[in-house]
Write a structure and sequence with these properties.
The complex is a heterodimer of chains A (230) and B (106). Chain A has helices at residues 10-72, 75-81, 128-229, and strands spanning 87-98, 101-112. With 230 residues, chain A is mainly α. Chain A has a domain at 31-157: Helix Hairpins (Orthogonal Bundle). A two-stranded antiparallel sheet of chain A has the order 1-2. In chain A, helix 1 (10-72) runs antiparallel to helix 3 (128-229). The longest helix of chain A has 102 residues, at 128-229. Chain B is an alpha/beta fold and 106 residues long. Chain B has a single domain, classed as ATPase, V1 complex, subunit F (Rossmann fold, 3-Layer(aba) Sandwich). In chain B, 44% of the residues lie in helices and 21% in strands. Chain B has helices spanning 10-19, 29-40, 51-56, 58-62, 84-97; strands spanning 3-8, 22-25, 44-50, 71-75. In chain B, strands 2-1-3-4 form a four-stranded parallel β-sheet, with helices on both faces. The chains are: A mainly alpha (230), B alpha/beta (106). At the A-B interface, helix 1, strand 1, strand 2 and helix 3 of A face helix 1, strand 3, strand 4 and helix 5 of B.
Chain lengths: 230, 106
């Protein structure tokens, strides 16, 4: 395991201990966030799947209706009939916060200028099939909006989950072990220094005692010599 | 205030145009890509793209996935559904979970 490149001092040790504490706490929080994001995301994904399966065939029906309309009305006439849409759709995108992920929330309004009808043409030159097609599309449109919103949310959540998962793994398998390793290393290094110091002190003490003993011996010999002489 | 756009072949976008969306009828992949790059910078909230073009423009669209808006969504075109919409969700699941755990039965 990679040990951090730091000086083995008490100061660094205490700093690292603090960092380890933060990392462990952060890891726990991240893990919780990941789990909750995952729960929301999976629910969402299931919902989208069901929704897709519902919307796709309906949209195909709309296309079929348009195909019928195209068969009945000449292309030029159809183009002309649909050239100037009477209604305009305005969309208001607001932000929704899901587990600190900003996801868009769409709200749309269809504004028509005159009547309530959405048909941008007179009924003289077009067939009923076209009316039907547009009616079906109008009915389907809110679902399409919802689908767009849900899919975008799912994409953004998936992105966030991936990021969070990486962070969790980085903390769990790299950062925290590195801190622990380094703390262990510093502790052992300090203990080793301590032992070295102890031994040195003992040795010095021995040397001093030995010196003292030699001096004492010399003094004894002096006194003995003086006594003998006297 | 945002707009809603749709990119696809002429037959597919016609109906949406009648509905009041900004319809961009494209004939080729290149044209669709150019249109996408152009309108993505505009204030569109949602851009629908028919599945055929969505598939072909996969790499281009991937650049905009991280943006909050616009939401770029695949819808079936008049030439039928290829299931691209579902496979997008599937991909998102794979990205998030690491394995496909929702659609595996298919």
């Amino acid at each position: 395991m990679a040990r951090l490149n730091v000086n083995p001092t008490r100061m660094v040790l205490s700093k690292l201990k603090g960092q380890l504490k933060v990392a462990v706490k952060g890891h726990k929080l991240m893990k919780d966030k990941r789990d909750e994001l995952m729960r929301i995301f999976l629910e969402q994904a299931k919902e989208i799947k069901a929704f897709r399966e519902e919307v796709d065939p309906q949209l195909e029906e709309v296309y079929q209706s348009f195909a019928v309309a195209r068969a009945v009305v000449s292309p030029e006439m159809l183009e002309e009939a649909l050239m100037f849409p009477k209604t305009s759709v305005s969309l208001v995108a607001t932000t929704k916060n899901v587990m600190s992920v900003d996801v868009p929330s769409f709200d749309y309004q269809q504004s028509s200028n005159e009547t309530d009808s959405v048909y941008p043409y007179g009924f003289a030159t077009t067939s009923g099939a076209l009316d039907q097609a547009i009616e079906k599309l109008t009915a389907l449109f809110p679902k399409l909006m919802k689908l767009a919103e849900m899919e975008k949310e799912a994409m953004l959540l998936a992105d966030e989950i991936e990021k969070t998962r990486r962070r969790v793994n980085a903390l769990e398998y790299v950062k925290i072990p590195a801190y622990q390793e380094t703390i262990k290393y510093i502790k052992m290094k300090l203990a080793e220094d301590e032992r070295g110091n102890q031994t040195r002190l003992m040795k010095v003490k021995d040397m001093m005692l030995e010196e003292e003993r030699q001096k004492q011996k010399a003094r004894d010999a002096e006194i003995l010599a003086a006594a003998n002489a006297g | 205030m945002n707009k809603i756009g749709i990119i696809g072949d002429a037959d597919s976008v016609l109906g949406f145009k009648a509905f009041g969306l900004d319809a961009y009828a494209c004939l080729s992949k290149e044209e669709a890509a150019a249109t996408l790059h152009r309108i993505v910078k505009d204030d569109y909230g949602i851009i629908f793209i028919t599945e055929r073009y969505f598939k072909e423009l996969d790499d281009e669209i991937a650049k905009y996935v991280d943006l909050r808006i616009p939401a770029i969504v695949a819808i079936p075109g008049s030439d039928g559904s290829y299931g691209i919409g579902l496979s997008n969700v599937k991909r998102a699941v794979e990205k998030a979970v690491g394995a496909d755990i929702l659609f595996g039965d298919e």
